[in-house]
């Protein structure tokens, strides 16, 4: 799975939930995860600005999809 894809971000979110033994997705947990991933994209990941914007958009889409499902695997 490639960094920055919607699937990558979904997997990262679910990994965080599983590692922290969270059975339900809360607004707070999504906020924490989103903040961490945004920080990585904005400050740690060296890339072209176009790719950075695409990653942020994919992250937003992944969060939206997960918020709709409201269940951790």
What's the short story on this structure?
The chain is mainly α. Helices cover 73% and strands 0% of the residues.
Structural commentary:
This protein has 73 residues and is mainly α. Helices cover 73% and strands 0% of the residues. The chain has three helices and no strands. It has helices spanning 6-19, 27-44, 49-69. The two termini are 18 Å apart.
Which percent bin holds the helix content? over 70%
* Largest sheet properties: none
Mean pLDDT: 88
Give the strand tally.
0
Radius of gyration: 12 Å
Note the total helix count.
Answer: 3
Shape annotation: elongated
List keywords for this structure.
3 helices; mainly alpha; 73 residues; single chain
């Amino acid at each position: 799975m490639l960094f920055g894809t919607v699937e990558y971000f979904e997997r990262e979110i679910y990994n965080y939930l599983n590692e922290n033994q969270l059975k339900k997705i809360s607004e707070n947990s999504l906020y924490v995860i989103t903040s961490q991933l945004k920080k990585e994209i904005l400050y740690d990941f060296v890339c072209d600005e176009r790719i950075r914007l695409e990653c942020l958009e994919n992250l937003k889409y992944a969060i939206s999809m997960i918020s709709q499902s409201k269940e951790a695997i």
